[in-house]
Amino acid sequence: MALPIGLSTVTVSGSFKAPDGTARKGKLLFTPEPAILTSATHDTLVLGTTVATLDVDGAFTVTLLATDDADVTPTGWTYRVTERWHDAPGRSYPLSLPAAAPAVDLADVTPTAPAEGEYVVITGPQGPPGSEADAEAYTDAAVAAHAAATTAVHGIPDTAALETTSGATAKVTTHAAATDPHGDRAYADATFATITVVTTLSGDVSNLDSFVQDCLTRVANIEQGVAFLAAVNTSLLSVASKHTLDGTLDRLGFHGVAPVARQAITGSRSDGTALTSLLTALHTLGLITDNTTA
So what's the pLDDT on residue 155? Predict the structure, then answer.
């Protein structure tokens, strides 16, 4: 009995010969995989194996259900072809029979060196030849449609939200011209000392330049010994009468006497004028109080 009208079929034929031309004896088994196919549209279940027995010339012809009929489920199935010869080992291989090729010679599709898992797919008839102009027109249309699209381009839901070249340029220009684009300049001015005004270092320091100059002056005085001498002049050994060392004018004074230059001793030792000069010098320096008489 034939398949219901409306189901697609493919007629498969073939001829098998021995190397000397003798007709081969045997049969071929066509078994759908999976085991049961369903066509709800045609109220038909397709299952089992179709056997094609070779005639005296070693030929056969059989009509089978197409493997891609739209009314049959599941889809994507194939036949398992099993060869059974009377005097030679047979083979087993998968075979796809799409409806686009309604007549197939098994010699055109059977594998010559089959491997496990190999599928033989029957392609449909060749379509009409195209032209270079048609290909260019199709490409141009696709590019134009892509360029004009504003939604779902490269997975972006709305390309209108993307930045334009002119918009990006304007934003960069505005950013470069801003006085404080990141808000960090105001923070720095309020937190750190600037080159013009310093109010956190000392209550007496209001200008950074004068503060630095004062530091340099103090360092110079230390190097020249002025600071040490000033300290000595201010307080030495915590006594009421102070000793003065004037390093600037190279003068010296003891016990509150005004500092004087280095004293020169004059006179003669023989007549005592040198002793008188010495006493005067020591008195002038403040080292002694000369209460002697002539």
Answer: 64
